[in-house]
Specification:
The relative contact order is 0.19. The strands form 2 sheets. Strands 2-3-1-4-11-5 form a 6-stranded mixed beta sheet, sandwiched between helices. Helix content is 29%, strand content 29%. The chain has 210 residues and is α/β, with parallel strands linked by helices. Strand 7, helix 4 and strand 8 form a beta-alpha-beta unit. It folds into 2 domains: 118 residues, D-Maltodextrin-Binding Protein, domain 2; 88 residues, Periplasmic binding protein-like II (D-Maltodextrin-Binding Protein, domain 2). It binds adenosine-5'-triphosphate and zinc ion (ZN). Its cofactor is Mg(2+). It is an enzyme of class 2 (transferase). It catalyses: 1-(5-phospho-beta-D-ribosyl)-ATP + diphosphate = 5-phospho-alpha-D-ribose 1-diphosphate + ATP. This is ATP phosphoribosyltransferase.
Length: 210
């Protein structure tokens, strides 16, 4: 039996469940249960907050997980990635108030930047030779500039309408992300074999979708 952690409810949940079903794996799921067993594959599915998934897979509480690369890299475990899954594509971008002038990332030198991704942003800014004050906040990052909490933000951007609604404009892409399958690095030979079967099925699903 191999244990896979997926997001309980959020932007990854539906596509994660659909992928497992398209792999030919059947299971009963009800919205209040925290785990379920597949009926035709030795798989147990755990439903968790996405932020907790990298740590649980690193520690072996779960053998496998499906999570965004943004959360995986921020958690500090990029090496757990074993397969790109092609959904939940998004980007982390820097944005500033629309009224502010902007020429290059050097303009952020010494500024206050609010983000939920201090590790990814810190590395990006260091690579650009920019020193800024990062303020880590866990949600509603987009309102920080308009209430005077920060000069800029770094957050997930998809449509741009949230930025617009908060008087912001995107100025730099910091990181591109998609959902990935992750795996514990000390799987038993038996679980490694199950992982390979799952990867094979996931690759077939992706080929068939194209
Ligand atoms: P949880 O309650 O599990 O912590 P959350 O609020 O942190 O959930 P979601 O908003 O459900 O997270 O997003 C989960 C993941 O989906 C993100 O980490 C990112 O990888 C991806 N994602 C976020 N926003 C988008 C988007 N607009 N388009 C595509 N993918 C996205
Ligand atoms: Zn989360």
């Amino acid at each position: 039996m191999i244990r896979l952690a997926i997001q309980k409810s959020g932007r990854l949940s539906e596509d994660s469940l659909n992928l497992i079903r398209e792999c030919g794996i059947s299971f009963l799921s009800s919205s209040y249960k925290l785990k379920t067993e597949a009926t035709n594959f030795p798989l147990e599915i755990l439903f968790l907050r996405d932020d907790d998934i990298p740590g649980y897979v690193q520690d072996g509480v779960a053998d496998l997980g499906i999570v965004g690369q943004n959360v995986l890299v921020e958690a500090g475990f990029p090496d757990l990635e074993v397969e790109k899954l092609g959904f939940s594509k998004c980007r982390l971008s820097l944005a500033i108030l629309r009224s502010e002038a902007y020429n290059s990332v050097a303009d952020l030198q010494g500024k206050n930047i609010a983000t939920s991704y201090p590790q990814i942003l810190g590395r990006y800014l260091a690579g650009e030779g920019v020193q800024a004050n990062l303020h880590t906040i866990s949600g509603s990052v987009e309102i920080a500039p308009s209430i005077g909490l920060a000069d800029a933000i770094c957050d997930i951007v998809s449509s741009g309408s949230t930025l617009l609604g908060n008087g912001l404009r995107e100025v730099e892409t910091v990181f591109r992300s998609e959902a990935v399958l992750i795996a514990n690095q000390q799987l038993t030979a038996e679980k490694q074999e199950l992982l390979e079967q799952l990867q094979f099925r996931m690759q077939s699903v992706r080929r068939a979708r194209r």
